[in-house]
Fold these 3 entries.
Entry 1:
Amino acid sequence: MVTKNENNSNELTFEYKVPGKWILSGEHAVIRGSEALVFPLISKYLQFRYFKSDQHFTLSIGGQYKGDLELFIWSVIEKYLNELNIKRDHLKGHLDIQSEIQFGAGMGASATLAVGLSQFFSRLGYLNSDLFEFSKKIEDLFHGESSGVDVAVALNAQPLIFKRGMPNQFLTHYKLPQLCISYSGIRGVTKDCVDQVKHLLIQNPSKYQAVDQKMSTSVQQLKEFISRDSASDIEWAGALNLAQSCFIDWGLVPNQAQKHIDHLITAGALSCKMTGSGGGGYILSLWPQYLNLDEIEASLGQQLIKVNRSECK
């Protein structure tokens, strides 16, 4: 049973936050072995708080996006219990989860949940296997097949270059221009987007392998740009436009998302791209340094979340 408010008076045993993510470039192609540039989104997260007791296990959900989580949280917990061979009545205490991340928005919410619950069961002593592999196994329930990129950044909470089957390359010295994300107004379904790209590859391998290569080229360009101070906004815009052209080729830019992009460009954005699987969710936008984003945000009537270096610390 999911309770609406936590009323457990026992002392807090442990607590932690798991961040969401935003992807600079590399979406979809990362599943087939290309690199991806991914950053934690600290302002969007799940917070876990556990209160140890001898009472039957109870769960409370709160936060801005609690409604998303309440729909399926128990089915995910049941999956953990089955995978770890835990009987429900053996689980004790109270777990409170505060959801400040939107599901279906391209910010890695399913990975934050998988990582957060894997850490929970690990801290209770039930999970002794590799947290990355186990969390990815759970995330696959949402996506069908995931690359693991979202799990990697949620687990490490650090900017990184991700490549399947390879050690993570953590980014410690990097420079970003004025970048923001904003909600397109439409949800994207990751599994549907992944399946669509796979279907296109089967239909026309040579054409869509070339699209993967375009995305990979965008990643290589942006890897260079983040490592030096001299990259211009024009260079950044070109690399982001190249990545966005892949989403267009894949048919993952719905009309509502394109209208949002058009509004951003009209307001002064230099370039925009989908971030995440596409089909909706959040849009990444590049802005000139001289523009006052607070004024632009007010004129748009929509929040622009800054994802520059200060966001990623």
Entry 2:
Amino acid sequence: MLELIQIKRVLKQQLSPSRFDHSAGVAETAVQLAQRYGARIEAARLAGWLHDYARDLPAERLIELAERAHLITCTLERKVPDLLHGPVAATLIESIFAITDAEIKQAIAVHTLGTENMGLLDKILYVADLIEPGRNYPGVEQLRRLAEVNLDQALLTGFNQTLRYCLEKNYLLHPQTIQARNYLLEQI
């Protein structure tokens, strides 16, 4: 695996400046949440830095890479290719950065849509992506406070906020997020 300094160098070239700053914020927030909830700190840091590795790729390239790796699960992902950036990044980081840690790859793969039965690092990355210091939207402060005391409630609130936003914007809803939310709701 490459050293973090080398990974940051590659990310600086691959990502837009705002995406790089966002990734730094997610990494910092993921580390704080990992410390609070007992997850592996370095895994959280790496997942935070790498979660949006494929986010700035063109839509056609995301679809091409997703098809090659058999990642497309429904037709919606072809209509909204940005939804593929997590799974695509999870496949790319092994070949580009020699990261084989299944927990890191899983967290990156599900950080946009969530999934049923999310692991601790999955939850941390999903929430960190929503509350990193650069985020500014209605409800983010409440979500930040909630993340300090109850990760599952923060995750549920994050799902609800995301779904509400998509409904208000009249966006298509991915069934995986609805399933993830419903699964979590039944567990807590």
Entry 3:
Amino acid sequence: MIKAVTDNKEQYMELLLIGDEQEDMVRRYLDRGDLFVWEENSEVVAVCVITREGDRVCELKNIAVSPEHQRKGIGRKMLRFAEEYCRSFANKLILGTGDSPLTVPFYEKCGYSRAHTVKNFFVDNYDHPIFEGGVRLVDMIYFEKELR
């Protein structure tokens, strides 16, 4: 079951840090974003944060599934939920991710197209090296999907 969270969003920081490893980066968008949690048996196992970026565009700022619940389709279902949620007020959903062998194929399989790249994003904005799937993240790859 997916639920919206409006108060005390910081209580989900542990899960949010799976999707974005640096707490001050998460805090930059958490208050202005819409936070949703996925619950199974009264346990929160996944989160996502969506922001409205104007001009009928939403951005998926964070999506994360607890390690013990990964590879069960929850991330894909959360992504579909985000698309449906945004569809009523946005024409496009964008998201940024590292150039990782784990995330890039996932978003491509979900129908997202590469939009642009922000060079050195992870080097310039994070206080420590970020690794995913054995690869150091340097550039942020933006993906987009038309919702209408």
